[in-house]
Design brief:
The complex is a heterodimer of chains A (about 550) and B (about 425). Chain A has about 550 residues and is mainly alpha-helical. Chain A folds into two domains: about 1-120, no CATH class; about 245-540, ABC transporter involved in vitamin B12 uptake, BtuC. Chain A is about 65% helix and about 5% strand. Chain A has 21 helices and seven strands. In chain A, the strands form two sheets. In chain A, strands 4-3-2-1-5 form a five-stranded antiparallel β-sheet. Chain A has a two-stranded antiparallel sheet with strand order 6-7. The termini of chain A are far apart. Chain B folds into two domains: about 30-145 and about 290-365, Response regulator (Rossmann fold), CATH 3.40.50; about 145-290 and about 370-395, Rossmann fold (3-Layer(aba) Sandwich), CATH 3.40.50. In chain B, α9 (about 265-270) links the parallel β9 and β10 (about 280-285). In chain B, α2 runs parallel beside α11, α3 packs parallel to α4 (about 105-120) and α11 (about 315-335) crosses α12. The N and C termini of chain B lie far apart (about 70 Å).
């Protein structure tokens, strides 16, 4: 069987070069893909793979992607694709275009998880020798999962030909997996388990654990079950390594949560921390930023679809402008009349927050809006086996650091920053030095709101874009600012990161609900002890 | 002369009263209360149901109304505030004098309405799947009970088609619906020979947004060498960050399928579903089901809401079925009196949008088909498994010992929502 498969694959390329010869049974097997019973479909897929017809890869790929249809009129199977907004169908065997067809005239051939696994495994076997590197990588991973004994020869052949190191590692991993589970030769299995024990990832761990489950423990007096012992040893060493990486992952998750908190809180650190305005509408500025991202993405989808991946970069300044503008308007129209009256400010900004929520609800509707991750922010990067970090989290951390650096520079190195600090430290003196304090107030509030808007861009990547987005972050933001020390940006950073890490180490032990409560209680106790937070401002500024 | 004048005056006054009274009669309407949150965390889901009821009312009025009267919607906003649900219910019944209420989403809001609606003998149609363990004389439950959603979904994943899962992760939001459902599921899994060591239960607060640790834990739990499946009773806003994290951490449906009971087309609308293809949902309705009734419903919905992109979902169908059953029962009873309509409700039949006929049972739950579907790249859910016939909604789960012996039946001789014996022993 294995030999036939590889022969067939050879002929596959020859056929591809010389043009297709259609066999009647291939056509009938393709027709069977629309059968009701999954078992009939699986049998048809197996025969299709065995036939080695070059069209099989195209048909199975279309099946996997949900592009295979049955024509309602005559039950003929066709491949349908939407190319530049037009839905066209083609014949899977001849490949000729059948023109535009209404979707209503077609029945989609449905696929479920069981079929998907089988099709992926089959395609993996068929594409092991593909000239495309990424295709070979996927093929290797699919073979790892299907563990089909029949691909061993093919894998060995692929390994002999392989020149790329990354693909080679995957091939060896897949080969070991197939051998460890299916080989009849104990020495081959032992060698394979040894190879596997060098890998550190959850998939290999699962594979070895299932091996142990299948091998009966040796009865007393009987010779030792070597495979089981080897597998147990391998599992122990993999788990030991996974445990260490688990701690690293927890720290990463903590830093990531911390950077999200930092982004959300940084704007508040300015409006509340520096200016002393209890701004309950801060969360809504974050939400406005997220909706701006949605709008920008929507514009890109309509007008600049090819550059969609970069829409986020445009969304960042746009969100800053929108939220900043709202902030300036709110400051000029409401907050400036309420300086020195914290209770009224609290109530007024809370009212504003409700109004903004309802405004967004009326304009965009109450449902979530779709903001998608650009491709460079999707998926994971495997740092080493056992430590996968998600790209969107990494980018959000980078973004948080950048925003923080910009804000610090703005505060410490620019004339505007100087005026801002002057006004907050001694308003009367600043005013008598010729600084337009009202204007500085408006700009400062606008800056804080704008930063909240930029946080919204980041949050739109991991959270809901709904009118309630802001409410979820307002309490956390206040907690971070108060914990870190009001009026101190560095305090906000340390506060956010330590709360993030504390939360992530607590969560696996206590569960998410209790972790949240414990963090809150801990912060309250801490504030009792040090009312001014981690890094209290010292000197005259405190009295102001 | 004086006397005559007086008589005429009286006659005139009486006539005037009659004429005026007549005018009032003609303008009289049947009031329908709509009790769905239009603000707060649940607005995302419930606003759609408010619009569905309004659409159905428009439809009836266009056809000439009910019992010769027009229907009038009384919409209130309980603002996702559970105690406010009770107050608004009292306002609807006592002040607005509505004849029926369509409303509630979360179980906690329904529990809050319950004492009021029972005290005032109102009628509530509750359109959302829930945890069961309840049957009130004044509530009709048109969403799924656990045996119409949770149990079939788990059975599917245990079967060959679903991948023969042996290990289970039960993820939920921390409140009454997920906790009760998971209690039932744990008992069910135990009865199927799944050990407690192979079940992981985890609860998160409402609106939980950082799923890194939990998704990583699920991955770890799934690497013990047995096929693992996740059952999600995560509700509301927390779903989007959960699915985003699943997609980003690369959990494929073929490896670890996630079946959700509270995620429908509406919730998926805010998500890029390409990384999620193959994850499952269990409901009694999917928008993608092909039937003439469904096509007509979707068309009507899009025309009403003036947005071609708005999806339809299961609670909308449940509202549709409940509303139609109520209008049929009112017509049959010839009155909107709660007691008469209640009697007329039993055995009431309405065609499902997905084919087949839903029947109202005497335990106030429906008989409906159960669909299990997989999420597609376009945000739709396509059926991969459908029960052959109708499944009768079970108010009291058979898998919890203390509720297995209870019966809900509001007709003679039981006349009871949670009894071990009939209230009236049959006379011989």
């Amino acid at each position: 069987m294995t030999r036939t498969l590889s022969c067939i694959l050879l002929s596959f390329f020859i056929f591809a070069a010389t043009g297709t010869t259609v066999f009647a049974d291939v056509a009938s097997d393709i027709d069977k893909l629309s059968a009701k019973s999954t078992n009939v479909k699986i049998a048809a897929i197996e025969r299709l793979v065995a036939s080695g017809e070059p069209v099989v890869v195209a048909v199975l790929t279309a099946f996997l992607e949900g592009n295979l249809y049955a024509r309602k009129a005559d039950g003929k199977i066709i491949i349908g694709k939407t190319i530049s907004g037009r839905f066209t169908v083609s014949d899977p065997l001849a490949g000729d275009d059948l023109g535009a067809v209404k979707k209503a005239a077609l029945d989609k051939i449905r696929i479920n998880n069981r079929l998907r696994t089988i099709v992926r495994g089959a395609l993996g076997g068929l594409t092991l020798l593909s000239p495309d590197k990424s295709q070979r990588l996927t093929a290797a991973r699919d073979v790892f999962k299907s563990q089909d004994i029949e691909v061993i020869t093919l894998l060995e052949k692929a390994i002999a030909k392989e020149t790329d190191d990354a693909v080679m590692v995957e091939f060896r991993r897949s080969l070991a997996a197939v051998q460890a589970t299916n080989s009849e030769d104990v020495t081959v299995r032992l060698a394979a388990i040894k190879v596997l024990s060098e890998f550190t990832d959850q998939d290999v761990r699962a594979l070895i654990a299932s091996l142990i489950g299948r091998e009966a423990p040796a009865e007393t007096g009987a010779p030792e079950n070597l495979v089981r012992t080897a597998a147990e040893n391998a599992l122990a060493s993999i788990e030991a390594r996974l445990k260490i990486w688990g701690y690293v992952a927890s720290i990463f998750q903590g830093l990531s949560l911390g950077s999200v908190l930092l982004l959300a809180a940084m704007g508040l650190a300015i409006t509340f921390g520096v200016m002393g305005v209890i701004n309950m509408a801060h969360g809504e500025m974050v939400m406005l930023g997220a909706y701006t991202t949605y709008l920008v993405q929507d514009l890109f989808k309509t007008y600049l679809a090819t550059y969609f991946d970069w829409s986020i970069l445009i969304a960042i300044p746009a969100a800053f402008m929108v939220a900043g503008l709202f902030g300036v308007v709110i400051e000029r129209c409401v907050i400036r009349f309420l300086y020195g009256r914290p209770l009224e400010t609290l109530l007024a900004t809370w009212g504003i927050s409700l109004m903004l929520q309802q405004l967004v609800r009326s304009v965009f509707g109450p449902t979530n809006q779709e903001v998608s991750n650009p491709t460079w922010m999707s998926g994971t990067i495997e740092v080493t086996g056992g430590l996968d970090l998600t790209y969107n989290r990494i980018w959000i951390m980078v973004f948080a650091v950048l925003v923080f650096a910009l804000v610090t520079i703005l505060m410490k190195k620019t004339a505007f920053g100087l005026r801002m600090r002057a006004v907050t430290q001694n308003r009367a003196m600043a005013s008598s030095m010729g600084i337009r304090t009202g204007w500085v107030d408006a700009m400062t509030f606008g800056l804080g709101s704008g930063i909240a808007g930029m946080a919204g861009v980041a949050l739109s990547q991991i959270d809901n874009v709904s009118p309630n987005l802001g409410q979820a972050y307002i309490i956390d933001s206040f907690m971070v600012v108060v914990f870190g020390g009001v009026g101190n940006l560095w305090g906000t950073v340390v506060g956010a990161l330590s709360l993030g890490i504390f939360n992530k180490f607590l969560e696996p032990v206590s569960g998410a609900v209790l972790a949240k409560i414990l963090v809150l209680v801990a912060v309250i106790l801490f504030i009792q002890k040090r009312p001014r937070g981690l890094f209290a401002l010292k000197g005259r500024a405190v009295e102001g | 002369m004086k006397k005559t004048f007086k008589a005429v005056a009286i006659a005139g006054a009486v006539a005037a009263t009659f004429v005026y009274g007549g005018a009032v009669q003609a303008a009289e309407t049947i009031k329908v209360g709509v009790l769905h949150s239009l603000s707060g965390t649940m607005a995302i889901s419930e606003t759609t149901l408010k619009d569905t009821v309004l659409m159905m009312i428009d439809d009836i009025n266009a056809k000439g109304g009910l019992l010769g009267k027009k229907l009038e919607a009384v919409v209130v906003d309980p603002a996702s505030n559970w105690p406010l649900f009770a107050e608004k219910t009292r306002e609807l019944i006592e002040k607005e004098k509505v004849d029926v209420i369509f409303g509630c989403w979360t179980s906690v809001s329904r529990k809050s309405v319950l004492p009021v609606i029972e005290e005032l003998n109102g009628m509530l149609f509750y359109p959302v799947q829930y945890e069961g363990e309840e049957s009130s004389r004044n509530v009709f439950y048109t969403g799924a009970a656990p045996n119409q959603q949770a149990i079939p979904a788990v059975e599917y994943l245990m079967g060959e088609e679903g991948g023969e899962a042996k290990r289970w992760v039960l993820l939920g939001t921390d409140y009454v619906y997920p906790r009760t459902t998971n209690k039932i599921l744990r008992a069910f899994l135990n009865s199927k020979g799944v050990k407690d060591a192979d079940i992981m239960e985890n609860y998160t607060p409402f609106g939980h947004s950082d799923w890194q640790t939990i998704v990583a834990d699920v991955k770890k739990f799934a690497s013990a060498g047995l096929k693992t499946a996740v059952v999600s009773t995560i509700n509301g806003d927390a779903n989007v960050p959960f699915y985003k994290e699943l997609g980003n951490q690369g959990i494929k449906a073929e490896d670890i399928p996630v079946v959700a009971f509270s995620v429908g087309e509406e919730e998926l609308a805010g998500l890029d579903t390409k990384p999620l293809v193959g994850h499952l949902a269990a409901w009694n309705y999917f928008m993608s089901e092909e039937s003439p009734a469904n096509a007509a419903f979707i068309k009507k919905w899009h025309a009403f809401i003036k947005d071609e992109k708005r999806p339809t979902n299961d609670p909308m169908e449940a509202t549709y079925i409940g509303f139609n059953m109520w209008t049929q029962a009112v017509q049959q009873a010839g009155t909107t009196s709660v007691d008469a309509v209640r009697q007329a409700m039993y055995g009431q039949k309405v065609e499902n949008l997905t084919g087949g006929v839903a029947v109202m049972n005497t335990n106030h739950h429906l008989s409906k088909p159960v669909l299990i579907g997989e999420i597609q790249a376009n945000g739709q859910i396509e059926t991969v498994s459908k029960t052959d016939g109708l499944v009768v909604g079970d108010a009291w789960s058979d898998f919890i010992p203390e509720s297995a012996k209870l019966t809900a039946d509001w007709t003679y001789p039981w006349v009871c929502g949670n009894c071990e014996k009939p209230m009236h022993m049959s006379m011989k």
